[in-house]
Amino acid sequence: MSAPSRIQRLIAAALAVSGVAGAAAALAVPATAPAKATPATIKLSHGCYETAEKATLTGSGFDPTAHWTAKLNGAAFGKGKTTATGTISASFGVPSHLRSGSTGEDTYTLVVSEGKHTATATFLVTHLDASFTPASGNLSTLKVTFKLLGWGRGGSIYLHYVSPKGTSRLDRKLGAPGGACGHLTTAPLKLFPFTPKVGKWSLQFDKSPVYKATSVPRVIIPYKIS
To answer: Exposed site from 2, 48, 57, 93, fewest CB < 10 Å?
Structure first.
């Protein structure tokens, strides 16, 4: 065998080995997993609403320009169409009253469905209220528990003792509401921490540290002393 022929065969063998190694190397590279689709999600503007209040719904991760439907606690509630980017924006009124036997805070589940996508969000419904128990007794010793519902986020709740003359005898801080709905239940406190005069009093609950007849929100409980 001539020298050139031998060199050609050596080169061919080297190329063959290189090709096998290259193939092996290619096989060793793991296949790239397909990117996971972002799950559809919905969000509400707040976690708690007063009865009949307006709520805002936003969502993302849905198919573009597709029809969606909504159910509230399993009942048909609304429908719409997603945007070109698969988002949702809508507003709705929450239930206008609490359920029968409610303790002052009702839970609702909102489900939005579109094609193969489903997203869920929960929210609470309450109402503005103030009460105390027991309702009567010896005023010199009577202690009551104040229960306040639906006072929202932030601030403190005050009780203003408005005399029969229409002026505040005392501005009393009861405490800060807590939770998503702004509830407060106090420890037993004297209903009147002073000796009230005979006549028609008004117990005004609001978030103002000083009495204002026009405060919003406010709850007024008349109390007659004879």
So the answer is: 2
The CATH H-level (homologous superfamily) assignment of domain 41-126 is Macroglobulin (MG2) domain (2.60.40.1930)
Buried b (16+ CB within 10 A) or exposed e, 36-61: eeeebbbebebebbbbebebebebbb
Q: Which residues of 85-108 are buried (b: 16+ CB within 10 A; e: fewer)?
A: ebebebeeebeeebeeeeebbbeb
What distance in Å separates the CA atoms of residue 186 and residue 15, rounded to the nearest whole number? 87
The model's pTM: 0.76
Query: Shortest CA distance to 192 belongs to which of 130, 138, 129?
Result: 138
The type of residue at 106 is: D
* C-alpha–C-alpha distance, residues 3 and 174, integer Å: 106
Looking at domain 129-225, its CATH architecture is Sandwich (2.60)
pLDDT digits (tens, 9 = 90+) for 99-150: 999 999 999 999 999 999 999 999 999 999 999 999 999 999 999 999 999 9
Every domain of the chain with CATH number 2.60.40.1930 lies at 41-126
